[in-house]
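Sample intake sheet
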Amino acid sequence: MTKQVIIGLHTEGVTDKRFLESVVKRTFEEVAFECVGDIEILDIQLIKVPKQEFIKEVKAAQIGYEKYGIMVLCVHADSDSSTDKDVFEHKILPAFEFAEITEEEEICKNLVAVVPIQMIEAWILADKELFKEELGTDKSDQDLGINKKPESLSDPKKTIEEAIKIAFSNLPKRRRKPTIGELYGPIGQKIKMNKLEKLPSYLKFKEGVRDAFKKLNYLH
């Protein structure tokens, strides 16, 4: 009998979800092959939380459980730093611990952190060939300024915006230049997972997915 898994996703920004929705589902599907038996990953449920909520992650766990019956909640937070230490210490762990110890029954207690180093845009640059294909450019990584390791960039979003400008700098003005926001969805759907696996922060997320399956008793 096929086991179905319902996953919720709470992101920091609107554009982030366009990229992460596909990446999260594809990661769970990959790890599902390590489990015993057949597992179906249902479409990701995007969880919106009122801005005034103090601990948004906990509220997302409540809303996701009550509204969609989620079994796992993925929580995205950019590190905005060269390490994830501060965001885990001051945001992720306190929220996860609160969700775990609360006596509230209508809440998802199986939480997974999605914490890219600096910004989610670093993950977008994990597959540079795909990035260039989406831009339709044959310029080199160096020409575009994307020749460094993605997580070593202090502002990967700005790097992408500059790369778009460079890619279209010598082209006819009638050819419309894409905005950065238009790249999140297509790249999230097409990005090679082995490219993401070169990023330590993604591997940390994937290990969290394994832990989530273990909590469901689908992986030992």
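Comment: The first strand starts at residue 3 and ends at 5. The radius of gyration is 18 Å.
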